[in-house]
Amino acid sequence: MLPYAPPESAPCEKYRRIRPVAQLDSEILAALKDIVGEERVLTDPESLQYYGRDWTRFYEPAPSAVVLPGTIEEVQALVRLAASSSLAIVPSGGRTGLSAGAVAVNGELVMALDRMNNIGDFDPVDRTVRCGPGVVTEQLQQFAEQQGLYYPVDFASAGSSQIGGNIATNAGGIKVIRHGMTRDWVAGLKLVTGTGELLDLNRGLIKNNAGYDLRHLVIGAEGTLGVVVEATMRLDRPPRDLAVMVLGVPDMTAIMRVLAAFQGEIELSAFEFFSELALQKVVAHQALQRPFETITEYYALLEFEQPDAAAMERAMALFAHCVEQGWVYDGTVSQSVAQAENLWRLREDISETITPWTPYKNDISTTISRVPEFLAEVEAVVNENYPDFEIIWFGHIGDGNVHLNILKPESLDIDAFREQCGEVSRWVFEIVQRHGGSVSAEHGVGLLKKAYLHYSRDPAEIGIMKQIKLAFDPHGIMNPGKIFDL
Fold first, then answer.
1. Which stretches make up the FAD-binding PCMH-type domain (predicted)?
2. Yes or no: is domain 358-455 CATH 3.30.70.2740?
3. Closest CA to 411 of 383, 385, 380, 389
4. DSSP sequence for 7-59
5. Residue 311: enclosing H or E segment and its boundaries?
6. Rounded to an integer, what is the distance from CA 150 to the centroid of its chain?
7. In this structure, CATH architecture of domain 242-351
8. Are strands 65-67 and 109-112 parallel, antiparallel or unpaired?
9. pLDDT tens digits, 287-321
10. Does residue 473 come out as left (phi exceeding 0), alpha (psi in the -120 to 50 range) or beta?
């Protein structure tokens, strides 16, 4: 185990030692194979492409090799080797990220954690379970269900995203309004730092005020502080008979009033929104039906428990009130589990539907009350400067998080599109800054938003972040170039 030692030189000088490499020399390749086995060191072009990228398509992956460790000890040995060889590491989970946080573009070694997918040490009293970083989100959800419990962090990529990646990005999703982010469900985690040291953080405790909680520094750090190799996750009681309602609304102000009305009477587990154009795309490409014939500018999707008949009666009374006030023009409510799933698909299938258009995604947030003004300003600046761009809006309106998706026109070259979207981002993030918001609500910063971090974080904050990075990763090998440059 390498002992921790503070950097001997300034951060920028220290990090110059990490050199881009196109191909590893035979000695390092042999050492990698000694650690994980020859068949788990991949250098063929197909593997480099597959493991070297995530869902973003703006960067061409160029890793030097891919390794697939199966134990914590193997991860430690790989990190120590990388540190001694000045070889950068990109941790890789389900590769579903949307900010290029897991993309290897400079000859890094990709550490894919797919094999570390064990679930064990379930404690029914504490309602906790230990997971390897390669456990797929849906796998944990199914395990919880088998125990009569519930893991509430959920999103469209639950069938392929991994717990380690969820922790690295502090993933949110569709249930945040009630259940919070991934951070709220991590009772403890183990981290291999940039020196190969293993940290056991919080150990599943509910109360632990013995100094700094380093666990929360790791959550959302995008692999820049080390590799998450195990997590103790909390579980909850299962929801009771969920109902889904989709409402057609004339504008964003009306959506906010609907949210306030329902939250005053019902505990919502989700409150989502999407635009008419988003609905058109989903219906056309996913063989789904419109929820009702009335066409409105936006749609709100609400989910709530209905443990008894009185719950649905309250919901229907609120619906009638919103219609009387002119906030809602039409609506529908699920009458079965299958209907609820189909209504959810109207929202959840949007990302998959628009993928062929190579969308430029902005995952932005502000306080909930400011969302209508915020969204109107963003839409106005994009429409004024690029009237030919199609804009798809959807998001977790109940927690102030909206997703701006700009679709690439078929005739426009990808590089030109990316350049123009870069201009859009600057304008959008100036609006974000004016509203005290975030340039990344839940997808992370990665490469895609690195240049815009200063719109959400002031220089003092960024400076402290860099010092934290150096404390965990003094050799500068852990996912360098993501979030910020040193």
1. 59-238
2. yes
3. 389
4. -SS-HHHHHTT----SS--HHHHHHHHHHH-GGGEE-SHHHHHHHT--S--SS
5. helix 309-324
6. 20
7. 2-Layer Sandwich (3.30)
8. parallel
9. 999 999 999 999 999 999 998 889 999 999 999 99
10. beta
Amino acid present at 483:
I
Q: Tell me the C-alpha distance between 199 and 189, whole Å.
A: 8
Domain range summary for the chain, segments of one domain joined by +? 11-115+462-472, 121-234, 242-351, 358-455
pLDDT in tens, 157-182: 999 999 999 999 999 989 999 999 99
Q: Any idea which architecture 11-115+462-472 has in CATH?
A: 2-Layer Sandwich (3.30)
Q: Same CATH fold, 242-351 and 11-115+462-472?
A: no
SS3 content of the chain, % helix, strand, coil (to 5): 40, 20, 40
How big is the chain by its Cα radius of gyration, in Å?
23
Confidence (pTM): 0.90
Strand partners, 112: 92
> CATH for 121-234?
3.30.465.10
Cβ burial 119-153 (10 Å sphere, 16+ → b, else e): beebeeeebbbbbbbbbbbebbbebbeeeebbbbb
Q: How many CB atoms lie within 10 A of CB 193?
A: 23
